[in-house]
Amino acid sequence: MRRPTIAIPDDYPVVMGSSPSFLNWRESTPCVYFDTLPGSEEGLLARIRDADIVINIRSSTKFPASVFAACPRLKLLSLWGTGTDSVDLAAAKQCGVTVTNTPGVSATSIAEHSLMLALAVARRVVEIHNGVVAGGWPRGRSVQLQGKTLGVIGLGAIGRRFARLGQGIGMRVIAWTMHPDPALGFELVELDELLRTSDVVSLHLRLSSQSTGFLGRDRLALMKPGAILINTARGPIVDEAALIDALRERRLAGAGLDVFDAEPLPAGHPLTRLDNVVLTSHCAGITPEALENGLALAIENVVNYLNGNPTNVVR
Q1: d(CA 253, CA 286)
Q2: Coil, strand or helix: which one is 214?
Q3: Residue 137 within a domain
Q4: Would 312 be classed as within a structural domain?
Q5: Long-range contacts: 212-217, Cβ < 8 Å, 24+?
Q6: In terms of domains, do 18 and 113 share one?
Q7: Are 117 and 214 in a shared domain?
Q8: 23 backbone dihedrals φ, ψ, rounded to 5°
Q9: How many other CB atoms are found less than 10 A from the CB of residue 166?
Q10: Which end of the chain lies in a sparser environment, N or C, as judged by fewer CB atoms within 10 Å?
Q11: Cis before residue 264, ω within 30 degrees of 0?
């Protein structure tokens, strides 16, 4: 029986190549491995055209219908991460390709990062730091979050973990989710009520046709004056231009953002000119612990598939 061909087309910057889980697995399982970016769809196809299984590391590497059509041997696409917005899932299904991901492995890391952003914005950490470095001594510009209301939009693994962290610092937590279930253990409210009453609103939705533009100009206008927005999910979930207007006009006190419409964030972007934002580089889920757990699960999904027991299949 022919051994399946396994390809890793996009490990740059290198994370898989230095993973203990991968190095141990590779000793017994040959695979075609690249530590550079494909650069284009043609470059990607040159690397995976003859593969039976692909482990994809970067969401910047896209899998549209044309890629699946050009890879007739492909049977499994194992994604590192939870997002599937880089994959045409309908085309994958039509071409008989099973798609798996690694849910939950970055939940703690992203939840902690979300809390950090909320605190950094509320306590005006960047502004105060810059003032001290410049020789000043700025004081009295911080907001306490204990006793305030935290509105969590999306109660997947990350949203639930963040909600518990909010409770842990004494915030009242309310939530809205696309699939409400009282068993989740949080106070569920209508979306409009959450936006109108929350001092901090944090987004934890997966990017999809339902969530693209979810927080548009009208919903941003509903937010409580002086509220803080946190987004560690995906940039296109928020109308970026409308958010910038709300921040410039001080209708919102600030925003903590790890994700953007264009990544990396272009030099001179309007968000970089605001003094009431804290910006990070889509790195909320990138800690050594989260990286290794996710890479190990991406490999485990391949092993389980080959053993006839697929796990973490994206529906």
Answers
A1: 27
A2: coil
A3: yes
A4: no
A5: 212/236, 212/237, 213/237, 213/239, 214/238, 215/239, 215/243, 216/242, 217/242, 217/245
A6: no
A7: yes
A8: -65, -40
A9: 27
A10: N
A11: yes
Q: What's the domain range around 66?
A: 6-105+288-306
Q: Which of 263, 269, 292, 300 is catalytic?
A: 263
Q: What's the CA gap between 96 and 31, in Å, rounded?
A: 22
Known active-site residue 204: no
> 127 and 43: one domain?
no
Does residue 259 share a domain with residue 124?
yes
Q: Is 234 a catalytic residue?
A: yes
* Beta carbons of 47 and 32 less than 8 angstroms apart: yes
- How many CB atoms lie under 10 A from the CB of residue 133? 8
Among the listed residues 66, 22, 39, the one whose alpha carbon sits nearest the alpha carbon of residue 298 = 22
Q: Which of 160, 161, 234, 240 is catalytic?
A: 234
- What CATH number did the domain enclosing 60 receive? 3.40.50.720
Give 272-303 pLDDT, tens digit per residue. Answer: 999 999 999 999 998 999 999 999 999 999 99
Q: State pTM to two decimals.
A: 0.87
CA distance 92 to 88: 6
263: annotated active-site residue: yes
Domain match, 219 and 139 both = yes
**Tokens 């970016």, residue located:** 37
Q: Are 261 and 238 in contact (CB under 8 A)?
A: no
Residue 217 sits in the same domain as residue 84: no
**CA dist 79 → 9, 56, 76, 101 (Å):** 12, 5, 10, 5
pLDDT in tens, 85-141: 899 999 999 999 999 999 989 999 999 999 999 999 999 999 999 999 999 999 988
Contact at 8 Å (CB) between 73 and 45?
Answer: no
Q: Which amino acid would we find at residue 82?
A: T
Q: Output the six-digit token pair for 41.
A: 């769809």
Number of domains in the chain: 2
CA atoms of 97 and 305, how far apart (whole Å): 12
- 1 found inside a domain: no
Which of 196, 269, 282, 300 is catalytic? The answer is: 282
| Domain annotation covers residue 314 | no
Instruction: Quote the tokens at residue 65.
Output: 């219908």
